[in-house]
Amino acid sequence: MFMIFYINILILTIQGCNSIEVADKFRHTTTNKGLSNDADHSISYKHSDNSEVVEHNSVVITSFKKPNTFELKMFFKAHPVQPFNNVIFNPLLAYYRVKDNNNYKREWLTYEHSSKLFYCTFCLAFSKNSNRFTIGCQSEPRHLYQRLCEHEKSVDHSQCIDSYLLYSKQKDLYNMFTKEKQAEKCKKRAVLDRIIETIKMIGKRGLSYRGAKNAEAAYTLNDATIDHGNFLEVLILISKFDPLLKDHINNAVLKSSKFHNNNKVTGKKSSGRPGSLVTLLSKTTADYIIEAIGQLMRKCISDNINEAQFFSIQIDSTQDINVHDQLSVIIRYVNTNVNERLLGFVRCISGKGEYLCKLVCELLKKNGLDLNKCVGSSTDGAANMRGEYNGFTAWLKKEVPEQIHVWCHAHILNLIMTDVTKICIECVSFFGLLSSIAVFVRESYLRMNKWETTSKYKFISIIGETRWWAKDRCVSKIFGSFHNPKDALFVDIVQTLDEIYNTPNFTSDVRFKAKVYVDSLLKYETIILSQIFLQIFSSTTPLSLYLQTKGLDIFQAYKMVKQTTNILNEQSRNFENILEASNTFTEWANITFNDRHLGLNIPREFAEHRISRKKIMAGEISKDDPTINQVNKYRINVFNVIYDQIINSITQRFSEHEIFSSISILDPSNFVSTLNLSHIDIAKRLIKLTGILNKFDPSLTVGTFTDEIKDFASKWPKIKQLADNDDDQENVLQYDDNDEDNEEKIDENKNKCKDCIVCCFKVLQIYNLHSMAYSNLFLAYKFILTLSCTQVRCETAFSKLKYILNRLRNCLSQEKMDTFLLMNIEKDILQNIKNEDVIELIANKSSLLKNLLI
Fold first, then answer.
1. What is the rounded CA–CA span in Å between residue 788 and residue 410?
2. Distance (Å, rounded) from C-alpha 396 to C-alpha 200?
3. Any idea where the HAT C-terminal dimerisation domain is (predicted)?
4. Ranges of H-type helices in 100-172
């Protein structure tokens, strides 16, 4: 400290400046803005009458005591303390001095309200000697203002001002000694910031990050012929346009090369880098970053789930490329919106329901989630999932008896469609024919060339067993849409097969198969069956896609199923519409055949078959009365069978859940009928739901719940109208600048649904009606939206799993694979992860990294 004063005196002597004038010149420097801009986020401070304490890393530092060197930054953040209320002196005379008719604030003066003493912040921080303003000056007005003027003119105070100016400019001895080290740390953190962003990009895109063997050492980075892997290659590419990263990589290569060459000379066999060389480019650093990102993402997801009052679980399992069974766990919860987040993948060594339940419970506990907040689960129909006694659901009910299990609606619909396409021999033959043709064309490049020449490079689909939309896509591509064959590939396929049949270069068995396929496609029965399934798919495919929507609520899904069932019922006995569509398709195909001079034709009637009659045995009176009309025969044996199967399957499999009686009252489309019910009738239907919600709100009663529903239902038309008006105002404000696009966007917003459970939930939330007036109703809506009716998000995660863990990259550890899946699936959370938080976690990995980065 003596050295600092000595240097300050020399500066003043050389410049010949008065210290007060210097203070006036640098008046703005003496504010907090003069401090370093490096925000220390671990610092928090507050004042009681602006005079309390500063807190840093849980160490409390008294504001009016002499600070240590490392505490100066916090000290000057807390000072000066200059209260204007409840003081016995004139604040304007004390805190300001007048010079040349200008007021200058005394930035050095600070006041402790509890002891009623004045202090000089500069002298407290830098003075070696004690004076009146370091031990505390009395605040009596009698001699106060004179003491302030005397202190300002003192040599000791002038030296402290100079010390502060040097400190604020970071030119004091401490900063001069540590400046180079701090600059190096900032440089390292900047480099690490670029590395973290690179790994985020790799994780977001689902790319591999490791390179070839022995190609990740720093001394090999200047060799462009080596595959260093995506991680290092991207950094090398960025370094071509980033001087900071380029300089870092060059230094790392130079140091690593010296170490490597030295080992060659001495004959030492050493692998890896020297212990003191931290390049930040090694796989170890990359692993640290991946681990830190995964830790922060899981914490963010867990925190969001814990903010919600309850959640539901979706689980499913699949085998990865290593033939390991991977269990996907998705959590559905509601905060401001409905969210479905991947919690993680867990490797299974057993498929038993008890074991799966144990894995899920352990995963929830590991992430700090309370199992008692689980209100529901959704699984597929496998025995180990929904078995009545030993399935996952049965074991979960033992842990949480109130939870509601829902069989995945999307899986149910897929099973129904699978059963329908196999209900009769005609259906099996039809889809077998389409799949065989696709395989036949694609298994040879010569046949594929014929197809590409005819179809102008259009794609022909193969029917996959696991793709829910595969059959619909295949039929639609070949036969177009129902009643509209304009975009069908039917004629192209027939032409390709006919050319293969008539080309001598193909083998006889290939030509024979082509002829069989052509004859099968040109049957009238094939055309009729295609129109039957096109009509069915026009209703079931939108339902299937809707059931795969993220955030779908259970009641809306059930209503969609009911609507689809009603449509299928209307179609089930209208065979004439199928005949009309078939004749339209046949006419279009025959015209196209004639235009292309193919010499082919589709008959517009069924092929005649010999009618088999049962022989009348002796003593029998009844006679066999076979159906002679082929149209009626097809209607009875194929059309009616297909529709009866799909309608009965939907009715049986999509059985109404017991909770639906309570949910239906809360549906705004039923509010009119709800108002006509008595309080007792509503209360009876709400008993089940109220019992579940009581766990989360003990004050909830059936009576208050019933009153809220009746009141909200009566006011819903006005509330709905208010919401519509607000949407219109938002449209005017939001789209005022783009006149061309305004019309489309406004129309889209006006057509938004206002008669569903989601809309009611949002209205209660937006207008703050959930806090007091309709708190119970809001809780009920939140509970309904939390229930999962599908576990399609698990299937989506499986698609990502096959992409992350593939034939070329199958050695990832379970935890690292889980983190890469989180980065690839939950991209919005990944982008919100702060690099500073990642760096803090990395720095705590070792003392060496802490010295380099903090």
1. 12
2. 36
3. 761-821
4. 121-126, 132-135, 141-153, 155-168
Q: Evaluate whether 701 touches 739 at the Cβ level (below 8 Å).
A: no
**DSSP per position, 194-217:** HHHHHHHHHHHHT-----STT--S
Strand partners, 641: none
Going from the C-alpha of 20 to that of each of 23, 108, 154, 396, the distances in angstroms are: 5, 12, 10, 76
Question: Cα separations (Å) of 538 from 313, 482, 564?
Answer: 31, 8, 10
565-601 burial, b at 16+ Cβ within 10 Å, e below that, comes to bebbeebeeebeebbebbebbbebbbebbeeeeeebe
Note the pTM of the prediction, 2 decimals.
0.75
Q: Which residue spans of the chain are classified as CATH 3.30.420.40?
A: 288-408+791-804+815-853
Which residues sit opposite 60 in a β-bridge?
55
As a whole number of angstroms, the distance between CA 647 and CA 812 comes to 46
Higher pLDDT, 373 or 271: 373
Residue 241 neighbours by CB under 8 Å, 6+ apart: none
Q: What is the dihedral of CA 228, 230, 232, 236, to 10 degrees?
A: 100
Residue 737 buriedness (CB in 10 A; 0-12 / 13-18 / 19+): exposed
HEC string of 640-687? HHHHHHHHHHHHHHCCCCCCHHHHHHHCHHHHHHHHCCCHHHHHHHHH
Reference 229, options 199, 253, 254; nearest CA is: 199
What does the longest C-alpha to C-alpha distance in the chain come to? 141
Q: Which two tokens stand for residue 28?
A: 């703005």
- Convert the pLDDT of each residue in 464-493 to its tens digit: 666 667 888 889 999 999 988 888 999 999
Q: What is the DSSP letter of 604?
A: S
Of the candidate ranges 131-135, 533-537, 566-570, 628-632, the one whose mean pLDDT is the lowest: 628-632
The mean pLDDT value of the chain amounts to 82
Q: How many residues does the chain have?
A: 854
8 A C-beta contact, residue 386 and residue 436: no
Where are the strands (E) in 253-409, listed by range?
311-319, 325-334, 338-348, 374-379, 404-407
Half-sphere exposure of 10 toward its Cβ, with a 13 Å CA cutoff? 6
Report the candidate in 421, 407, 339 with the shortest Cα–Cα distance to residue 377: 407
Alpha helices in 314-457 (DSSP H): 353-366, 383-386, 392-399, 409-420, 425-442, 445-455
204-229: pLDDT as tens digits: 999 998 888 788 888 899 888 899 99
Query: For the segment 28-82, what is each residue's pLDDT rounded down to a tens digit?
Result: 333 333 333 333 333 333 333 333 444 444 343 457 888 887 788 888 888 888 8
Per-residue confidence band for 172, with pLDDT thresholds at 50, 70 and 90: low
Q: Dig out the tokens for 578 from the structure.
A: 């199928």
**Residue 31 gets which letter from DSSP?**
S
Q: Please, are residues 518 and 458 in contact by the beta-carbon 8 Å criterion?
A: no
Strands across the sheet containing 53-56: 43-46, 53-56, 59-62
Contact (Cβ atoms closer than 8 angstroms) between residue 781 and residue 715: no
What is the arithmetic mean of pLDDT over 347-358? 93
Taking a C-beta distance cutoff of 8 angstroms, is the pair 289, 841 a contact?
no
**Residue 744: its pLDDT value, please?**
38
Residue pair 538/480 in contact by the 8 Å Cβ criterion = no
Cα–Cα nearest to 314, from 344, 337, 336: 344
Quickly name the fold that domain 288-408+791-804+815-853 has.
Nucleotidyltransferase; domain 5 (3.30.420)
